[in-house]
Structure formats: structure tokens, C-alpha cells
């Protein structure tokens, strides 16, 4: 596991932790997580193996990432300030879901590179997994989580932008 891998994982955690207090949502802050996992995909994901038991690992991992991302997106609060800025605030539950996803991937990477490689290799042989299936599963889980959360927060931000600013006037 390289320093860059550590920095990407820690940056993904930090982005949501920073939103616990509320943070102005810009196109840059919305798309930064997508850029980070996109970079990782270009660096590490060269093919998605589909033989043996590969899809039995990859599909559930991807679905888990999507579920965590949907949960983190739905549980984040998006509102518009009186000045018209769109702000996103991650709730504790949203941050926990996000950190669970990133943390599980980080823990697996640490395990795989610090002594767990032989056990993963034996498991892979027993379950007919291509070594690239682990990379695909981890990265597609990350893509699912990031893209789902980004899409939900972005969609909610668009809806919030259409709302008028200032106090609401009730008509009789």
C-alpha cells in the first residue's frame, strides 16, 4: 500500500468529516471524491474479471458500496442559506456509513499488504478468484459509494437551488 493510497483513503474520510459542521457545496467539493476514486481506477483497475467466482465477490462488494453511498447521501442534510449558498452537512449517521465503507477498504488493504496476502491467496484459490477480482471489488465498491452519495447530494442541491431565498411568505 503506497503513500498515495493512504492519502486518498484519508482524504475521502476527511471530506465527509469536514461536512459534519456544514460546508458550502461547490462543483469542486461535490466532484473531488469522484476525481479521487477515478484516479485510483485509472491506476489500478485494468480489467474486471468475470471467470470462476469473481462476480460472486465483485457484485456484492459493488452493491454494498452503492448502499453505503445511498445511505450517506440520504442522511446528509442539504440546505440553502439566506445568502443563497448551498450547504451540505453530514449527519453522524451519514459520516458513520461513509467511514465504514472507506475504513473497511483501508483495513483490507492494510491486511493484504501486511501479512494477510497468503491467506487471501489461499481463499482466492479455494473460491476460484482471479487476483484482479479483489482490486475490482474494492474499487467498484468505492465507485459505488462515491457516485451514489455524489449523485444524491448533487440532486438534492439542484432542488435546493430552485427554492427562493429569504423568509417564506404564506398566502391566505
TrEMBL record:
The transmembrane segments are 29-45, 57-75, 87-112, 132-152
Mind listing the UniProt keywords for this protein, alphabetically?
Answer: Membrane, Transmembrane, Transmembrane helix
The identity of this protein, by name, is PEP-CTERM protein-sorting domain-containing protein
Tell me the organism.
Streptacidiphilus jiangxiensis
Amino acid at each position: 500500500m503506497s503513500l498515495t493510497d493512504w492519502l486518498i483513503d484519508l482524504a475521502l474520510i476527511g471530506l465527509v468529516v469536514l461536512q459534519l459542521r456544514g460546508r458550502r457545496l461547490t462543483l469542486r467539493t461535490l466532484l473531488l471524491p469522484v476525481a479521487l476514486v477515478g484516479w485510483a481506477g485509472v491506476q489500478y483497475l485494468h480489467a474486471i474479471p468475470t471467470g470462476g467466482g469473481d462476480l460472486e465477490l465483485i457484485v456484492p462488494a459493488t452493491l454494498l458500496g452503492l448502499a453505503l453511498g445511498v445511505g450517506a447521501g440520504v442522511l446528509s442534510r442539504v440546505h440553502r442559506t439566506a445568502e443563497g449558498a448551498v450547504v451540505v452537512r453530514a449527519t453522524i449517521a451519514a459520516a458513520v456509513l461513509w467511514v465504514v465503507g472507506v475504513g473497511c477498504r483501508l483495513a483490507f488493504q492494510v491486511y493484504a499488504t501486511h501479512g494477510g496476502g497468503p491467506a487471501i491467496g489461499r481463499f482466492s484459490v479455494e473460491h476460484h478468484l482471479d487476483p484482479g477480482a479483489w482490486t475490482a471489488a474494492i474499487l467498484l465498491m468505492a465507485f459505488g459509494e462515491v457516485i451514489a452519495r455524489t449523485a444524491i447530494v448533487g440532486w438534492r442541491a439542484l432542488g435546493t437551488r430552485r427554492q427562493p431565498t429569504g423568509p417564506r411568505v404564506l398566502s391566505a
